[in-house]
Amino acid sequence: MKIAVLGAGAWGTALALAYAAEHDVTLWARNAEQVDAMEGARENARYLPGVALPASLALTADLASAVAGAELLLVVTPIAGLRPTLRALAALGQPLPPLLWACKGFEAGSSLLPHQVVAEELPALPAAGALSGPSFALEVAQGLPCAVTLASEDAAFARRTALALNSTRLRLYANDDLVGVEVGGAVKNVMAIATGVADGLGFGMNARAALITRGLAEISRLAVALGASPQTMMGLAGMGDLILTCTGTLSRNRQVGLKLAEGKSLPVILEELGHVAEGVPTAREVLTMAERLEVDMPITAAVCALLYHGASPQQVVGDLMGRAPKSEAGERLA
Ligand SMILES: NC(=O)C1=CN([C@@H]2O[C@H](COP(=O)(O)OP(=O)(O)OC[C@H]3O[C@@H](n4cnc5c(N)ncnc54)[C@H](O)[C@@H]3O)[C@@H](O)[C@H]2O)C=CC1
Ligand SMILES: O=C(CO)COP(=O)(O)O
Predict the structure, then answer these.
(1) Is 3 helix (H, G, I), strand (E, B) or coil?
(2) Does residue 281 fall inside a structural domain?
(3) What CATH number did the domain enclosing 246 receive?
(4) Which residues contact residue 16 at a Cβ distance below 8 angstroms, ignoring those fewer than 6 apart?
(5) For ligand 1, is residue 77 a contact (CB within 6 Å)?
(6) pLDDT digits 0-9 by tens, 31-42
(7) Whose CA is nearest to atom 22 of ligand 1?
(8) Where is NADPH bound in this sequence (predicted)?
């Protein structure tokens, strides 16, 4: 298949590498200097250092040439880059092939999920869907085994495309619960910030397990309120990615939490990170959605208090632990 991967950060580069082994892949970056540097070194030294780009992987900063003849588009920018990239595609003024996206989050300001942004910007696409699940870019680039979910409301497209993209290094599962897969991928990043804070403060493994489990309950409540199936939360894009991101040292969102626990300010943390941490802008959107839908999301509220309202980690932990006791299903005991 001829595939255009749009966005050359860590994840776009890793996916392009993985698919270049079996498909005809072009990786597009908006920045021509970055493309020149990658072409010169055959490495993405800025976002995925130490991994050689195969000779078969084409690189370009020209969107029209990346898209020409492509049978599948894969948008792998941060969610903040999704709408601008879709608009650039629309501006090409030509029929487009099916499109997948791999960004995780709710769009800042609009609180929209990626599929809603895609529907607004490219309503005439023949098919569309999300790629999500537990997948650190570096491990995928190194060829280590990984399994992810390909979700689309068009179940036949999800199955057909999962079959076409499946490989022995990157196993694909089809799913037609697009909302569930997107919510799982978006909100686990918020939980990873919370877990990083708890681990950074030395709260121990009991606290970590509690955060992950109650985090999953929180994600599931929001997902179901948005129309998702609870079963999806038990899958790769739900529990799978939540476990990976909350516990994996490669997670940027977890690193944000660890650094908050060291007392660093958010601007300093983001500067040091040098990559996107989607949980930071998404936490605010998730809380907005939760308030709108009257879904109780105390861990998300605690992360927002830490990130945006100057609360101290000790304060938010005290607030979380001091809440009225509840049943595990969520009703108050008194
Ligand atoms: N890195 C990972 O392990 C994984 C990341 N993801 C998701 O993939 C998305 C991208 O993440 P990364 O590649 O890791 O980010 P990154 O921080 O490594 O790189 C971001 C890339 O996006 C580009 N970009 C930003 N705004 C853009 C725009 N408007 N148009 C075109 N390009 C733009 C930047 O120039 C940069 O190349 C995020 O939503 C992330 O949550 C999903 C699975 C794994
Ligand atoms: O989404 C990811 C793994 O599935 C990457 O997580 P981070 O963005 O926290 O690094």
Answers:
(1) strand
(2) yes
(3) 1.10.1040.10
(4) 5, 8, 25, 27, 57
(5) yes
(6) 999 999 999 999
(7) 77
(8) 11, 30, 47, 104, 137, 252, 276, 278
Residues contacting 51, CB < 8 A, separation 6+: 13, 14, 17, 43, 44, 138, 141, 142
**From 34, 35, 77, 249, mutation site for ligand 1 pocket: most ligand atoms within 8 A of C-beta:** 77
| CATH code, domain with 59 | 3.40.50.720
State percent of the chain over pLDDT 70.
100
Q: Is residue 224 part of a domain?
A: yes
C-alpha 75/C-alpha 103 separation (Å) is 8
Domain residues for 198?
A: 186-322
The alpha carbon of 7 and the centre of ligand 1 are apart by a number of angstroms equal to 7
- CA dist 241 and 218 (Å) reads 15
Q: Is 8 in the pocket of ligand 1 (CB under 6 A)?
A: yes
The response to whether 7 counts as a known ligand-binding position is yes
Residue 94 CA to ligand 1 center (angstroms) comes to 25
In a domain, 334, yes or no: no
Give residue 319's identity as a one-letter amino acid code: D
**Within this chain, do residues 144 and 28 fall inside the same structural domain, yes or no?**
yes
Is 114 within the bounds of a domain?
yes
171, 195: one domain: no
What is the complex's ipTM, to 2 decimals?
0.98
Instruction: Render pLDDT for 136-163 as a digit per residue (tens, 0 to 9).
Output: 999 999 999 999 999 999 999 999 999 9
pLDDT tens per residue, range 58-81: 999 999 999 999 999 999 999 999
The number of beta carbons lying within 10 Å of the beta carbon of residue 163 is 11
Residue of 2, 188, 264, 326 with catalytic role: 188
Segment 294-316 mean pLDDT: 95
**Phi and psi, residue 150, nearest 5°:** -110, 115
Residue 11 counted as an annotated binding residue = yes
Annotated active-site residue 188? The verdict is: yes
Single residue among 109, 142, 176 that ends a domain in this structure: 176
Using the 3D structure, point to which of 151, 176, 201 is the last residue of a domain: 176
The structural domain count of the chain equals: 2
- 276 assigned binding-site residue: yes
Does residue 22 carry a pLDDT above 90?
Answer: yes
Query: What ligand has the least distance to the C-alpha of 83?
Result: 1
